[in-house]
Amino acid sequence: MVKTLGERSHPYIPNSQPEIKQEMMREIGIKTINELYADIPEKYLLNKPLNLPKALSEFEIKRHIETLLSKNETCSHMPIFLGAGCWPHYVPAVVKEIMQRSELLTCYTPYQPEISQGMLQALFEYQSMICELTAMDVANCSMYDWASALGEAARMAARVTRKNEVLVPQIIHPERTKTLQVYAEPAGIKVVHVAYQKETGLINIEDLKKKISQKTAAVYIENPSYLGFVETQVEEIGEIAHDNKALFIVGVDPTSLGVLKPPGDYGADIVVGEAQPLGNAMNFGGPLLGIFACRDEIGLIRQMPGRIIGLTTTVEGNRHGFCMVLQTREQHIRREKATSNICSNEALCAVASAVYMALLGPEGFRELGETIMLKANYAMKLLSKIEGVKTPVFNSPHFKEFTVNFDGTGLSVKEVHKRLLQRHIHGGKDVSKDFPELGETALYCVTEIHSKEEIERLASALKEVLAKR
Amino acid sequence: MFKQANWNEPIIFNLGRSGRKGHLLPKAEEEIRRAVGELDALIPKHMRREHKPNLPELSEVEVYRHFLRLSEMNYGVDSGFYPLGSCTMKYNPKINEQLANLPTINMVHPYQDASTVQGILEILYSLERMLAEITGTYEVCLQPSAGAHGEFLGTLLMRAYHKKNGEIQQRREIIVPDSAHGTNPASAAMAGFNVVVVPSDSEGCVDLEALKTVVSERTAGLMLTNPNTLGIFEKNIEEIAKIIHEAGGLLYYDGANLNPLLGKVRPGDMGFDIVHMNIHKTFSTPHGGGGPGAGPVGVSKDLARFLPVPRIVFDGNSYRLDYDRPESIGKIRCFYGNVAVLLKAYAYILSLGFEGLKEVAEVSVLNANYLMKKLMEIKGLTLPFNNGKPRKHECVFSAKTLKNETGVSALNIAKRLLDYGLHAPTIYFPLIVEEALMIEPTETFEKEEIDRFVEAMRKICEEAYANPEKTLKAPHNTAIPKLDEVKASHPRTMSLSWRMYLKKKV
Do residue B334 and residue A345 have CB atoms under 8 angstroms apart? Predict the structure, then answer.
């Protein structure tokens, strides 16, 4: 146990060594450090210790935290069928190694480009590969997550079009809607929900046509949607948006883009999404990595939020290099007129995604998409054979997530999942409160990390727990 | 002599060969394929990807080498002195990285049943309590992903508070000092407020008389950094708090400069109603080239009801997430925050305890004042707003004299410092200092490294008077010489992705 630091220097604080302190104080011309705090009104200076745990040694910290964390169950010991905005995927060893490279881990935002070329190039490569995946031209070097990226996209659309309504599907992540509303409301933007077709879950085109107007700044869809199905009317929706001079915003799960048509190929003006699955662990939901991309149109680019890295040359013009660009949009220069207040973002997560995308390559993305989609569809096939279980609820193609309805079993999702957990299997996300019209329904997720055996174990466990109603 | 690696590393799109593989993924088992059929049968034709994405094709060996080389063309806190003012570049303990990479955190899903995540919930709950104790606030919310995200939440809380009191139509203004971080006005504007700027007085603090004239029934609140961006403690804080509170406004604490106050002074005790902390500054988590960080927000009792959902609650036996908060503003992102980052802050606080945190503050202030004293001896540099009082965590010098006398600017000094294997300070900020060099040594750097910086500054300034050419053309020893940043942002040449570059060929 470290006692008072007066007696012992702390490993993180080299100058806590008493003689050095004395030497430096002499140089400044003071006798005690408190003289440096003399300008602070005395009433504010703490006169008693804070109520904090006693300092621990490194070994003690390690033991303490490892012990606490060992109370968590993980997807390596228990099959977990949760997705809903944060997904279990494998993170290759190379990604983890690069993430721990100290020069990348411990640097600040690259304000001095000449000494930060490594970070800048890695981020430029992230932006470029996101553009290739989404078929867009420009991407920023990250937002906090998909939800905040959507909030910023709505605000950007309102600035670009000078209109103040955004249309979003009824089927959307409830936390994403909440975030969107929080971002939109202060800007005077109204969020309007568009109904879905009962059979398929797809956007109800009639309702969209009814709700779109001169006031519409943007039409937003997600692909795959929150409840896992693929929105197939994309071209039509994009045309309706553009006919009404609204921007077309598409939210994506990038793991689908090796097999599904990228939004740039169906007219998206802005693409947002979640790149956590590309090389970032779940970490109980954060950090995440918000995708933000748009078309090469100066009116759009100038309104983008966030840091953007560009390719340039040296002053002498004989070599390529990278630096931050369009900083005049940003808060440190533009202050209250900035396109966003974002400063720190998720840069290192973007580097992880760059490494991941480079490892997978074009073939890898196709394989990833194929593996996920086949496995998820296999799971649907097995579960739909169980009496009383209906999956998927919507008659549409599904990518990696799908709805499972238990109405026919007479049991609530909560009860079914409780019983599954007793068998050491974690069910999907209970969405029956968020979408009451769907009855007792859960959202299940299957990715490349779920083995055939795990999927079959889920099916047989479900059969078992439902048998004793 | 410092010489940064210069691999002249090609863009990744120009590496590799068609057909190479970087990673083998698990494949769907044969029985699955037989049961489900071909992928094409699952996706309607018009929704299939027609062309493969134009990604590079590299072996694992090449991918690793590429990014390794890039890392060698970069400079971090572990490389050496990194005195970026207001950025608090401190050492990032290695044990914290190891802990944040345990599978028992990496492989945990945010929607798992509370009974399966008791460990991480306990850590987050304890961290909230510790941060509340350190800042003197009632409740802390861990959801914001960064400092500016915390500011956004803070200004949304002001909005919620005034709405509740039926005054939001009237209270449209947030006051910020002219020395404030750019995020303050930007955050206030994002939350729908108008920004009113209050000037600094001759000592670099908020001008009290000016403040009185801008405060009114329209005031929603004041955002203040204390110590401010000049490194000066706002000594009139009691009076400032009184003025704002009497006018019905709220007082917001920008925690970017909290480091020198750890264990010494608490924002809550000074009357601040809302406080954000930069975990990646004060609590030692790595900046990662611009994130991920975390920007928790602490609030007074009156404001706790408005915090985003969910809140972590403890019933004496177990922890759970509570979404039932009818007055909550909602959410500012998905899930609960940057948990892996927050875990590192928890470990950091445990490694120091109260005594250690106080030592962090004191040594960071000692280092800054030592550095200031040494730099004051250098010809060409001046210390604006010199009131003879100590600075706290940072000091701001001006290179105006040097520029007038030699042509060497703050920017040139910054670039020349890189040649010595030292990172540059923050430059041209705060805006109220001409040719500003904003220097924050933190508690991380040993006297010897600080002395090395002082020596480099002395040489650079001497060189400016003797022969400025070399400094004007700096840097020379970095991976790349000076870049054309104007060209980078010019609409004709702007290349923001590889595909955009191929179209334009800068």
Answer: no
Question: Are B280 and B420 part of one and the same domain?
Answer: no
CA distance B287 to chain A (A): 5
Question: Could you tell me how many CB contacts below 8 A there are between chain A and chain B?
Answer: 732
Partners of B358 on chain A (C-beta within 8 Å) are: 5
Question: Does residue B336 belong to the interface with chain A, where contact is any CB pair within 8 Å?
Answer: yes
Which of B325, B351, B377 terminates a domain? The answer is B351
CATH number of the domain encompassing residue B415: 3.90.1150.10
- Same-domain pairing of B43 and B109: no
Task: Check whether residue B407 and residue B324 sit in a common domain.
Answer: no
Q: What is the pTM of this model?
A: 0.97
Is B404:B416 a contact under the CB 8 Å cutoff?
Answer: no
The residues spanned by each domain of chain A are 1-49, 93-356, 361-467
Residue A21: alpha-carbon gap to chain centroid: 45
Q: How far is B61 from chain A (nearest CA, A)?
A: 9
Picking from B112, B362, B489, the nearest residue to A310 by CB comes out as B489
Edge-to-edge strand ranges of the sheet holding A441-445: A401-405, A441-445, A429-430
d(CA A407, CA A303): 47
CATH number for region A361-467:
3.90.1150.10
Q: In B, residues 164-223, which contact A (CB 8 Å cutoff)? A: 181-183, 185-192, 195
Q: Under DSSP, is residue A57 helix (H, G, I), strand (E, B) or coil?
A: coil
Q: Which of A342, A303, A280, A358 is nearest to A121 (CA)?
A: A358
CB contact under 8 A, A358 and B63: yes
Does residue B376 share a domain with residue B347? no
On chain A, the residues whose CB falls within 8 A of the CB of B496 are 127, 137-139, 296, 301, 308-311, 325
Nearest to B263 among A50, A314, A355 (CB): A50
Of B448, B413, B499, B481, the residue nearest B4 (C-alpha): B481
The Cα-based distances of A230 to A198, A260, A402, B39, B44 in angstroms read 15, 9, 10, 14, 10
Answer for the pair A269, A135: CB distance below 8 angstroms, yes or no: no
The reply to whether B502 falls in a domain is no
Rg, C-alpha atoms of chain B: 26
User: Domain A93-356, what fold?
Assistant: Aspartate Aminotransferase; domain 2 (3.40.640)
* Domain with B188 in it: 98-351
Same-domain check for residues B258 and B390: no
* A378 contacts B35? CB cut-off 8 A: yes
Residues of A in contact with B32 (CB under 8 A): 374-375, 378, 452
In a domain, B364, yes or no: no
The count of domains in chain B is 3
Shortest Cα distance, chain A CAs vs residue B164, angstroms: 15
Q: Is B30 on the interface with A (CB under 8 A)?
A: no
| ipTM exceeding the 0.90 mark | yes
Residue B503 lies in a domain: no
Q: Is the dihedral of CA B164, B165, B168, B173 positive or negative?
A: negative
Q: Looking at the complex, report in whole angstroms how far the Cα of residue B123 sits from the nearest Cα belonging to chain A.
A: 8
- CATH number, domain containing residue B327: 3.40.640.10
B155 and B299: one domain?
yes
Is position B360 within any domain?
A: no
pLDDT tens for chain B, residues 1 to 506: 899 999 999 999 999 999 999 999 999 999 999 999 999 999 999 999 999 999 999 999 999 999 999 999 999 999 999 999 999 999 999 999 999 999 999 999 999 999 999 999 999 999 999 999 999 999 999 999 999 999 999 999 999 999 999 999 999 999 999 999 999 999 999 999 999 999 999 999 999 999 999 999 999 999 999 999 999 999 999 999 999 999 999 999 999 999 999 999 999 999 999 999 999 999 999 999 999 999 999 999 999 999 999 999 999 999 999 999 999 999 999 999 999 999 999 999 999 999 999 999 999 999 999 999 999 999 999 999 987 889 999 999 999 999 999 999 999 999 999 999 999 999 999 999 999 999 999 999 999 999 999 999 999 999 999 999 999 999 999 999 999 999 999 999 999 999 999 998 76
